[in-house]
Amino acid sequence: MATKLSEAQLPQLLPFLEQHLPHCFKIHYDLKNHLRGQYPELEFIVDRWPHPQAVVAKVNSEKMISKEELELVEGAWGINDDALSNLLKHPSVLVWNKITIIVAINQKAVVQTATEMGKSCQIFPTTMWEARQRDLPPIPVPEGLKLRSATSADVGVINSTWKFGASIFEPFIQAWIQDYPSVYLETDSGQHVGHMISQNSSIMGTLHVNPEFRRKGYAKVLVSQLAQKYFDRGENAYVRIEEENQPSQVLHKSLGFKEILDAKIVWVWCT
User: Fold this and answer.
1) Distances in Å between the alpha carbon of 137 and those of 140, 205, 225?
2) 81-108, pLDDT tens digit by residue?
3) Which distant-in-sequence residues (6+ apart) come within 8 Å of 261 by Cβ?
4) How far is it between the farthest Cα atoms of the chain?
């Protein structure tokens, strides 16, 4: 069984997810931000109601992306493997003959389900890191540079410098920079130096500094300045880093971020 929750029902889902933090961190923040009016294209599906065992946050493809290209699940979490697997197999949840991307905590259940549905998977495990305001003082913008928020005109640059960049993701980047904090660093003459934006669950990411400007401390400026925007909202700063990206983990640790050991998030690409 699968039930798509109405907007009126969604606030009732939040306290249930809060009981299971940090294991359902991603989908919890997706829901919180959706209730704030951000990322309206998300729909939340549960295996049963009002006592769910598994939850999926799926992008409505009719609103965001071509229905022929992609199925995108921004969050998938279950109390146990069977509950999540059964929900993902339900025909009203996913059309498995498309490229499918699932962002999940429970890698085992997702990969097993995808394999049963005849898909091959690429897995990108990431670690979650958190910083509090007292641990991360602001680093000022160096002389000769200027900092601003990213705009629609910057989507192409951000997409082209992102490891996972592709044309199908440009609408998502557009939505992220519209709804969430971002920083875009330039020289006084307007040359792009680097950037960092936030994704839909208020997680900082896509940090990039152009090669000719590296080893000058500008990455630390970008991370610090974006984190301050969250601190100004009374929130902690979160970043998601691929497990294999040791330089990024060292960078964020040096700034005061601490790894959340029980909140690893995995991207599963199914083709």
Assistant:
1) 10, 19, 9
2) 999 999 999 999 998 888 888 887 767 8
3) none
4) 59
